[in-house]
């Protein structure tokens, strides 16, 4: 055999050997479980199970908003196998969750600098520290000293805004509940040609009902498509067949995102709940500290409830029980466009989760969860831990307002930096923690489908028949239970609008 022949033979043998090695791997790749797509809820369930399996070899996780994939951080290729076997993406990173949590504890002890915030970011596998525009000079030097010895475990960023709580003072011209009124649109009702104050952009309690889209309690269903007890409303399911679900009408009472007033403060209602069967609502703890009582109008002529528990700082939630034990407020959030989103459950936040926020100052905003277990130092000793960090905007008056994802309650607006023109960071109190601490449950009145404001409101088409007399104007919604079409619909003219002085062009001057 000559040298050339020997070289060819050797090369062939090497190629065959290489193929023998590569072939099993190629076959194995075709057998890998396909990547799954997840909702935030299903991702949380699997991630919780994987965290238990991984133990201290896990390093956090997040939901990829674009692909819907669950991404689990692990410390070795061996650990990655169990993750990919379940249909998730495994990413090998440097820092363990144990190390990251230890780093946040160090910061709490050494970086007590007003105007700072931090959270664990699983996407970068680091603790992200944010310093607002007030952190300069000695304050910046103290922060640099605290973070300097932590190496690449920490990243420091600057914010153009200033961290502050989002409770606001009073409401301007015309009274009422916010930009154009709080509870609906009315229809040439209320006091004045196009309404004033209280409950509605074009009237408090208009020709076609009380506080719904076509007046307070609406043409076509309880709290559904067009309000509560108007021409064809009543109680074919209390909250109306129009319900308080997606695309439902404006609510007949305060719901998530509605303005609430206490003393000189204005905040937003978070979520209606029940405590031992009694109706109540959640809002921010710093709002609960502002006043012991809360009303639906600045003048206090429409009282809502009394604070039973308020926790701030360290955490940030308050429980307010309705003064009327027979109140049946809906378990819903105001979408600020005449419709509502019903809320049926509470859910933990996940990094990458798409969320929306409803507040009485800026209305509806959306964005993404960017961090968990966040700490914010608002100054004056007001340091709050365990918050949800987001890129959702908010402004003063939005405090306590609802952050939600579909039918799930997720957070209560606490504070942040920036505004809805410039953007910025906003932090939220986890609803699940507030519920656990107060013993409250999502929903108000325990009404279900057959009660106005039940936790699960009707989701069908608008009601097409009266059920009991509709009542007059701003009066109580009809409570009859007859089948549709068995009673007269009621005129729904009733008393004049509630709240605010007479005026020509509606209420509140915010926005």
Features:
511 residues; alpha+beta; GMP Synthetase, Chain A, domain 3; Thrombin, subunit H; 3 domains; 6-stranded antiparallel beta barrel; 6-stranded antiparallel beta sheet; 18% helix; 25% strand; disordered C terminus
Q: What does this protein look like?
A:
Residues 462-478, 491-511 have a biased composition (Gly residues). With 511 residues, the chain is an alpha+beta fold. The protein has 3 domains: 24-92, GMP Synthetase, Chain A, domain 3, CATH 3.30.300; 97-159, GMP Synthetase, Chain A, domain 3; 160-511, Thrombin, subunit H, CATH 2.40.10. Helix content is 18%, strand content 25%. The protein contains 7 helices and 25 strands. The strands form 5 sheets. A 6-stranded antiparallel beta barrel has the order 19-20-21-24-23-22. The chain has a 6-stranded antiparallel beta sheet with strand order 13-14-15-12-11-25. Residues 2-30, 171-247 and 445-511 have low confidence and may be disordered.
Layout of helices and strands, plus pairs?
Blueprint: H1 3-30, H2 40-54, E1 58-63, E2 70-74, H3 77-84, E3 89-92, H4 97-110, E4 116-121, E5 126-131, H5 137-148, E6 154-158, E7 164-165, E8 168-169, E9 259-262, E10 265-268, E11 271-275, E12 278-283, H6 285-290, E13 293-295, E14 303-311, E15 317-322, E16 332-334, E17 340-342, E18 345-346, E19 354-359, E20 363-377, E21 383-390, E22 402-405, E23 408-416, E24 426-430, H7 431-438, E25 441-442
Parallel strand pairs: 2-3, 5-6, 18-23
Antiparallel strand pairs: 1-2, 4-5, 4-20, 7-23, 8-10, 9-10, 11-12, 11-25, 12-15, 13-14, 14-15, 16-17, 19-20, 19-22, 20-21, 21-24, 22-23, 23-24
